[in-house]
Structure prediction request, 80 residues.
Amino acid sequence: MNNLINDGLGLMMLGMGFVFLFLGILIFATTYMSKLLTHYFPEVMPATKKPQRAPANGPAAVDPNIAAAITAAIHQHRNR
Prediction:
């Protein structure tokens, strides 16, 4: 029985070691690829735009028929 437990623990350590090694290699590979990509394809800064001003007369006028339809839909929904 003791030999079976030792074999199980050894297999567990071997499996965990391989997973730890794989994850370490994965971290180094992704770091290296990130540095490689930023070296060959630097990030382009977007051109700055002037902020658009709101119209002086306020928001655009809403069609009264559309406003009535929206109001009726809200009223019907709340009365359910």
In short: The mean pLDDT is 87. DSSP finds two helices and no strands in the chain.
